[in-house]
Protein backbone atom coordinates (compact mmCIF):
# COMPACT_ATOMS: atom_id res chain seq x y z
CA UNK A 1 0.00 0.00 0.00
CA UNK A 2 1.13 3.55 -0.74
CA UNK A 3 2.55 5.49 2.18
CA UNK A 4 0.11 7.71 4.05
CA UNK A 5 0.06 11.43 3.28
CA UNK A 6 -1.05 13.47 6.28
CA UNK A 7 -2.27 16.99 5.65
CA UNK A 8 -2.59 19.45 8.52
CA UNK A 9 -5.24 22.15 8.10
CA UNK A 10 -3.76 24.31 10.81
CA UNK A 11 -5.93 27.40 10.84
CA UNK A 12 -9.09 27.52 8.69
CA UNK A 13 -11.17 30.64 8.28
CA UNK A 14 -13.97 30.00 10.74
CA UNK A 15 -12.45 28.41 13.85
CA UNK A 16 -11.47 30.89 16.59
CA UNK A 17 -9.30 31.10 19.66
CA UNK A 18 -12.59 30.97 21.58
CA UNK A 19 -12.90 27.38 20.33
CA UNK A 20 -9.28 26.51 21.11
CA UNK A 21 -6.69 29.07 22.29
CA UNK A 22 -4.02 27.38 20.15
CA UNK A 23 -5.75 28.35 16.87
CA UNK A 24 -3.11 30.42 15.02
CA UNK A 25 -3.71 33.97 13.74
CA UNK A 26 -0.30 35.70 13.73
CA UNK A 27 2.71 34.80 11.59
CA UNK A 28 4.54 33.39 14.61
CA UNK A 29 1.53 31.32 15.65
CA UNK A 30 1.15 29.91 12.11
CA UNK A 31 4.83 28.93 12.08
CA UNK A 32 4.51 27.31 15.50
CA UNK A 33 1.48 25.27 14.42
CA UNK A 34 2.91 24.28 11.04
CA UNK A 35 6.16 23.22 12.68
CA UNK A 36 4.36 21.11 15.27
CA UNK A 37 2.39 19.37 12.52
CA UNK A 38 5.41 18.73 10.30
CA UNK A 39 7.51 17.45 13.19
CA UNK A 40 4.68 15.05 14.06
CA UNK A 41 4.50 13.67 10.49
CA UNK A 42 2.47 15.98 8.24
CA UNK A 43 3.78 16.39 4.71
CA UNK A 44 1.21 18.96 3.56
CA UNK A 45 0.06 22.14 5.26
CA UNK A 46 -3.37 23.28 4.06
CA UNK A 47 -3.16 26.99 4.69
CA UNK A 48 -5.62 29.78 5.37
CA UNK A 49 -4.27 33.03 6.72
CA UNK A 50 -5.66 35.65 9.08
CA UNK A 51 -4.87 39.16 10.15
CA UNK A 52 -3.42 39.33 13.66
CA UNK A 53 -6.92 39.87 15.08
CA UNK A 54 -8.17 36.64 13.49
CA UNK A 55 -9.96 38.17 10.48
CA UNK A 56 -9.62 35.82 7.49
CA UNK A 57 -7.86 37.28 4.46
CA UNK A 58 -6.75 36.00 1.06
CA UNK A 59 -4.19 38.78 0.68
CA UNK A 60 -1.31 37.61 -1.48
CA UNK A 61 1.10 39.64 0.66
CA UNK A 62 -0.10 38.02 3.89
CA UNK A 63 0.15 34.56 2.32
CA UNK A 64 3.68 35.33 1.14
CA UNK A 65 4.86 36.46 4.56
CA UNK A 66 3.41 33.38 6.25
CA UNK A 67 4.54 30.90 3.58
CA UNK A 68 8.09 32.32 3.69
CA UNK A 69 8.13 32.11 7.48
CA UNK A 70 6.89 28.50 7.46
CA UNK A 71 9.45 27.61 4.77
CA UNK A 72 12.28 28.90 6.96
CA UNK A 73 11.39 26.34 9.63
CA UNK A 74 10.02 23.57 7.40
CA UNK A 75 11.84 23.86 4.06
CA UNK A 76 10.50 20.61 2.55
CA UNK A 77 6.83 20.71 3.44
CA UNK A 78 4.20 21.05 0.70
CA UNK A 79 2.18 24.20 1.29
CA UNK A 80 -1.33 24.11 -0.09
CA UNK A 81 -3.08 27.49 0.12
CA UNK A 82 -6.84 27.62 0.28
CA UNK A 83 -8.73 29.21 -2.59
CA UNK A 84 -11.93 28.75 -0.62
CA UNK A 85 -11.03 31.55 1.74
CA UNK A 86 -14.05 32.56 3.78
CA UNK A 87 -17.73 32.74 2.84
CA UNK A 88 -18.56 35.96 0.93
CA UNK A 89 -15.16 36.61 -0.68
CA UNK A 90 -15.01 37.28 -4.43
CA UNK A 91 -13.40 34.84 -6.87
CA UNK A 92 -10.41 37.04 -7.62
CA UNK A 93 -9.91 37.74 -3.94
CA UNK A 94 -9.90 34.00 -3.27
CA UNK A 95 -7.46 33.25 -6.10
CA UNK A 96 -4.74 35.62 -4.90
CA UNK A 97 -2.47 32.99 -3.28
CA UNK A 98 -2.28 31.10 -6.61
CA UNK A 99 -0.25 34.05 -7.95
CA UNK A 100 2.53 32.84 -5.65
CA UNK A 101 2.69 29.65 -7.76
CA UNK A 102 2.27 27.10 -4.97
CA UNK A 103 2.59 23.40 -5.84
CA UNK A 104 -1.00 22.76 -4.81
CA UNK A 105 -4.11 24.71 -3.90
CA UNK A 106 -7.67 23.75 -3.09
CA UNK A 107 -10.41 23.85 -5.72
CA UNK A 108 -13.90 23.70 -4.23
CA UNK A 109 -16.27 21.76 -6.47
CA UNK A 110 -19.72 23.06 -5.59
CA UNK A 111 -21.98 25.37 -3.61
CA UNK A 112 -23.30 24.38 -0.21
CA UNK A 113 -25.06 25.68 2.87
CA UNK A 114 -22.44 26.50 5.45
CA UNK A 115 -24.49 26.88 8.62
CA UNK A 116 -27.01 29.59 9.55
CA UNK A 117 -27.51 31.93 6.61
CA UNK A 118 -24.07 31.30 5.13
CA UNK A 119 -23.72 29.94 1.61
CA UNK A 120 -20.30 28.87 0.32
CA UNK A 121 -20.71 29.75 -3.33
CA UNK A 122 -18.89 27.88 -6.07
CA UNK A 123 -20.88 28.03 -9.30
CA UNK A 124 -19.92 25.93 -12.30
CA UNK A 125 -18.34 28.99 -13.92
CA UNK A 126 -16.36 29.73 -10.77
CA UNK A 127 -14.98 26.20 -10.73
CA UNK A 128 -14.07 26.45 -14.43
CA UNK A 129 -12.37 29.81 -13.82
CA UNK A 130 -10.38 28.45 -10.88
CA UNK A 131 -9.50 25.27 -12.84
CA UNK A 132 -8.16 27.31 -15.76
CA UNK A 133 -6.02 29.51 -13.50
CA UNK A 134 -4.55 26.43 -11.82
CA UNK A 135 -3.68 24.77 -15.14
CA UNK A 136 -2.05 28.02 -16.36
CA UNK A 137 -0.02 28.28 -13.16
CA UNK A 138 0.97 24.59 -12.98
CA UNK A 139 -0.81 24.10 -9.65
CA UNK A 140 -2.22 20.69 -8.70
CA UNK A 141 -5.73 21.20 -7.36
CA UNK A 142 -6.94 19.38 -4.29
CA UNK A 143 -10.57 18.92 -5.33
CA UNK A 144 -12.57 19.67 -2.21
CA UNK A 145 -15.88 17.83 -2.34
CA UNK A 146 -18.46 18.29 0.39
CA UNK A 147 -21.02 16.00 -1.22
CA UNK A 148 -21.33 13.33 -3.93
CA UNK A 149 -22.69 15.81 -6.49
CA UNK A 150 -19.39 17.68 -6.33
CA UNK A 151 -17.55 14.59 -7.54
CA UNK A 152 -19.90 14.53 -10.56
CA UNK A 153 -19.07 18.20 -11.18
CA UNK A 154 -15.32 17.53 -11.00
CA UNK A 155 -15.61 14.59 -13.39
CA UNK A 156 -17.67 16.65 -15.84
CA UNK A 157 -15.18 19.52 -15.78
CA UNK A 158 -12.32 17.07 -16.10
CA UNK A 159 -13.90 15.78 -19.35
CA UNK A 160 -14.13 19.37 -20.58
CA UNK A 161 -10.47 20.02 -19.82
CA UNK A 162 -10.75 22.30 -16.78
CA UNK A 163 -9.20 19.74 -14.43
CA UNK A 164 -6.33 17.44 -15.33
CA UNK A 165 -5.61 13.79 -14.45
CA UNK A 166 -4.70 12.21 -12.14
CA UNK A 167 -7.22 13.93 -9.91
CA UNK A 168 -6.71 14.31 -6.19
CA UNK A 169 -9.87 14.67 -4.09
CA UNK A 170 -10.45 15.83 -0.56
CA UNK A 171 -13.65 14.38 0.90
CA UNK A 172 -14.72 16.99 3.45
CA UNK A 173 -17.30 15.10 5.48
CA UNK A 174 -19.66 16.18 8.22
CA UNK A 175 -20.02 19.89 7.38
CA UNK A 176 -23.44 21.24 8.36
CA UNK A 177 -24.86 21.40 4.81
CA UNK A 178 -22.78 18.68 3.17
CA UNK A 179 -22.60 14.89 3.24
CA UNK A 180 -22.50 13.16 6.65
CA UNK A 181 -19.46 11.47 8.11
CA UNK A 182 -20.60 7.89 8.56
CA UNK A 183 -18.79 4.93 7.08
CA UNK A 184 -21.48 4.40 4.43
CA UNK A 185 -21.00 8.02 3.29
CA UNK A 186 -17.27 7.43 3.01
CA UNK A 187 -17.74 4.21 1.04
CA UNK A 188 -20.13 6.05 -1.32
CA UNK A 189 -17.64 8.84 -2.07
CA UNK A 190 -14.65 6.57 -2.23
CA UNK A 191 -16.40 4.34 -4.78
CA UNK A 192 -17.28 7.33 -6.97
CA UNK A 193 -13.84 8.53 -8.01
CA UNK A 194 -11.75 7.25 -10.95
CA UNK A 195 -9.36 4.35 -10.40
CA UNK A 196 -6.30 6.54 -11.04
CA UNK A 197 -7.42 9.24 -8.59
CA UNK A 198 -6.06 9.71 -5.09
CA UNK A 199 -8.00 11.06 -2.15
CA UNK A 200 -7.65 12.40 1.35
CA UNK A 201 -10.44 12.53 3.88
CA UNK A 202 -11.16 15.45 6.20
CA UNK A 203 -13.73 14.50 8.83
CA UNK A 204 -15.28 17.43 10.63
CA UNK A 205 -15.51 17.38 14.44
CA UNK A 206 -16.18 13.95 15.88
CA UNK A 207 -15.84 12.37 12.44
CA UNK A 208 -12.15 13.27 12.15
CA UNK A 209 -10.54 10.19 13.65
CA UNK A 210 -13.06 7.48 12.62
CA UNK A 211 -12.75 8.63 9.00
CA UNK A 212 -8.96 8.84 9.32
CA UNK A 213 -9.03 5.21 10.40
CA UNK A 214 -11.17 4.25 7.38
CA UNK A 215 -8.81 6.02 4.97
CA UNK A 216 -5.71 4.48 6.54
CA UNK A 217 -7.19 1.02 6.09
CA UNK A 218 -8.44 1.75 2.55
CA UNK A 219 -5.15 3.15 1.24
CA UNK A 220 -6.36 6.75 1.12
CA UNK A 221 -4.83 9.78 2.80
CA UNK A 222 -5.83 11.85 5.81
CA UNK A 223 -6.35 15.50 6.73
CA UNK A 224 -6.62 16.65 10.33
CA UNK A 225 -6.17 20.03 12.00
CA UNK A 226 -7.90 22.85 13.80
CA UNK A 227 -9.79 23.88 10.64
CA UNK A 228 -11.75 20.64 10.95
CA UNK A 229 -11.62 19.70 14.62
CA UNK A 230 -10.11 21.18 17.79
CA UNK A 231 -10.41 18.12 20.05
CA UNK A 232 -7.86 15.38 20.62
CA UNK A 233 -10.57 13.19 22.13
CA UNK A 234 -14.05 13.79 23.51
CA UNK A 235 -13.93 16.94 25.66
CA UNK A 236 -10.12 17.23 25.50
CA UNK A 237 -8.82 20.19 23.48
CA UNK A 238 -5.73 19.50 21.39
CA UNK A 239 -2.76 21.59 22.53
CA UNK A 240 -1.46 21.88 18.96
CA UNK A 241 -2.07 20.69 15.43
CA UNK A 242 0.92 18.45 16.03
CA UNK A 243 -1.03 16.51 18.64
CA UNK A 244 -3.75 15.77 16.09
CA UNK A 245 -1.19 14.66 13.51
CA UNK A 246 0.62 12.51 16.08
CA UNK A 247 -2.62 10.68 16.83
CA UNK A 248 -3.01 9.78 13.15
CA UNK A 249 0.62 8.63 13.03
CA UNK A 250 -0.05 6.33 16.01
CA UNK A 251 -3.16 4.94 14.33
CA UNK A 252 -1.23 4.31 11.10
CA UNK A 253 1.55 2.58 13.00
CA UNK A 254 -0.91 0.27 14.75
CA UNK A 255 -2.38 -0.61 11.35
CA UNK A 256 1.00 -1.13 9.68
CA UNK A 257 0.81 1.86 7.31
CA UNK A 258 3.95 3.91 6.85
CA UNK A 259 3.78 7.71 6.79
CA UNK A 260 5.04 9.62 3.73
CA UNK A 261 7.72 12.29 3.86
CA UNK A 262 7.07 15.45 1.82
CA UNK A 263 9.30 14.05 -0.97
CA UNK A 264 7.29 10.82 -1.01
CA UNK A 265 4.04 12.78 -0.97
CA UNK A 266 5.23 14.76 -4.02
CA UNK A 267 5.88 11.51 -5.83
CA UNK A 268 2.51 9.99 -4.91
CA UNK A 269 0.67 13.12 -6.03
CA UNK A 270 2.81 13.69 -9.12
CA UNK A 271 3.63 17.26 -8.15
CA UNK A 272 5.69 19.27 -10.56
CA UNK A 273 9.19 20.15 -9.40
CA UNK A 274 9.52 23.87 -8.65
N1 LIG B 1 -13.65 28.32 4.67
C1 LIG B 1 -14.56 27.66 3.81
C2 LIG B 1 -15.65 28.61 3.40
C3 LIG B 1 -11.00 25.56 1.13
O1 LIG B 1 -10.10 25.75 1.92
O2 LIG B 1 -10.82 25.50 -0.08
C4 LIG B 1 -13.92 27.11 2.60
C5 LIG B 1 -12.78 26.22 2.78
C6 LIG B 1 -12.43 25.40 1.61
O3 LIG B 1 -12.15 26.12 3.82
ZN1 LIG C 1 -9.71 25.17 4.01
Write the layout of secondary structure elements.
Elements: E1 6-9, H1 27-40, E2 44-47, E3 49-50, E4 56-57, H2 60-73, E5 78-81, H3 91-95, E6 104-108, E7 112-113, E8 119-120, H4 124-136, E9 140-145, H5 148-159, E10 168-173, H6 183-190, E11 198-203, H7 208-218, E12 221-224, E13 231-233, E14 236-237, H8 241-254, H9 262-269
Parallel strand pairs: 1-2, 1-12, 2-5, 6-9, 9-10, 10-11, 11-12
Antiparallel strand pairs: 3-4, 7-8, 13-14
Helix pairs in contact: 1-2, 1-8
The protein binds (5S)-5-amino-3-OXO-hexanoic acid and zinc ion (ZN).
Residues 9, 12, 46, 48, 82, 84, 227 line the site of zinc ion.
Model description:
Keywords: Metal-binding, Transferase, Zinc. This is 3-keto-5-aminohexanoate cleavage protein. One of its GO terms (molecular function) is metal ion binding. Its cofactor is Zn(2+). The longest helix is centred in the N-terminal third of the chain and has 14 residues, at 27-40. The protein contains 9 helices and 14 strands. The chain has an 8-stranded parallel sheet, sandwiched between helices. Strands 3-4 form a two-stranded antiparallel sheet. 36% of the residues lie in helices and 19% in strands. The chain has helices at 27-40, 60-73, 91-95, 124-136, 148-159, 183-190, 208-218, 241-254, 262-269, and strands at 6-9, 44-47, 49-50, 56-57, 78-81, 104-108, 112-113, 119-120, 140-145, 168-173, 198-203, 221-224, 231-233, 236-237. By secondary structure, the protein is an alpha/beta fold. The structure holds (5S)-5-amino-3-OXO-hexanoic acid and zinc ion. (5S)-5-amino-3-OXO-hexanoic acid is lined by residues 13-14, 82-84, 86-87, 106, 108, 114, 120, 144. Zinc ion binds next to loops.
Amino acid sequence: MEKLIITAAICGAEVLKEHNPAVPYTVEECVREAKSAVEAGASIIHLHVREDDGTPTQSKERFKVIIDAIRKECPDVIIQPSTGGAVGMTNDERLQPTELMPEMATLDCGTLNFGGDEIFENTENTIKYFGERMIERGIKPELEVFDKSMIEMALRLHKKGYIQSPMHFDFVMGVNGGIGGDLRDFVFLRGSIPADATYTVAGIGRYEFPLAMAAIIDGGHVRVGFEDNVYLSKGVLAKSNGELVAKVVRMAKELGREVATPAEARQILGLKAR
